[in-house]
Structure formats: C-alpha cells, structure tokens
Amino acid sequence: xxxTPWQAHHSLKRLRRSDLHSLPATLPLTAGRLHFIRLVAxxxxxxxxxxxxxxxxxxxxxxxxxxxxxxxxQLEIYYRRCAQAPVRLVKVFRYEIHEPLSRLLPxxxxxxxxxxxxxxx
Length: 121
Hints:
By secondary structure, the chain is mostly beta strands. About 10% of the residues lie in helices and about 30% in strands. Strands 2-5-6-7 form a four-stranded antiparallel beta sheet, with no helix packed on it. Strands 1-8 form a two-stranded parallel sheet. The chain has a two-stranded antiparallel ribbon with strand order 3-4. A hairpin with a 4-residue loop joins strand 5 (about 65-70) and strand 6 (about 75-80). The N and C termini lie close together (about 5 Å). The model has no long low-confidence stretch (mean pLDDT about 85).
C-alpha cells in the first residue's frame, strides 16, 4: 500500500448527504472481501471472528493475512516470508455465511481497481 495513516485516512471515499439518507436501516452483507492480519499461535492456529482455524505449526509466531471472500464463502490464508518473497496461499477453508448477500450498489463502489496481492507488505 505504501501510504501513511494520514494519507490513507484522507484517501477514503466520503458518502454524500444524499447517500446517507438512501441507506437502509439495516445494512445488508455485500459481496466482497474482508482482510485480517493474525499472529499464528504456538499450536498453529489463528483466531478470527470468535472461531479458531488450524493453519500450520510451521508458521507459529509468524503473521498471516486471512481473507474472507463473502461471495465464494471461503476463508483464504496467505503467508509471505519477507518483503522480497512471493505471497503464497497456505490454506483455504469453507466459510459459512448464514445471511443473504447483496451486490454493492454502483454509487458506493470505489473508482480505482483493487490492488493485487503482491503489494501486501
């Protein structure tokens, strides 16, 4: 990403007042990705949203990138040994979501394209 916290904060898309009034009372779960950085425990597991997932004892003490892909209902665990090493997919789990998913309305989408995983630091 390469942004300072100040730059990241000021690059966020702000909702217009008209957009705020058009939001539903309860927000639906939308198709997309949720990213988490987690430290792998000594037993090789990570804790994510009150659930424990077994990753690998070899990664104990290292950080992994956990991504929930809502539209495919999967949890993907990625690891990168160092900044020069490629990102590798370590595990994929089925992630049950017991809510209907909605598409993100076009007016709320970002204008720029999603960054590729190799930009992860």
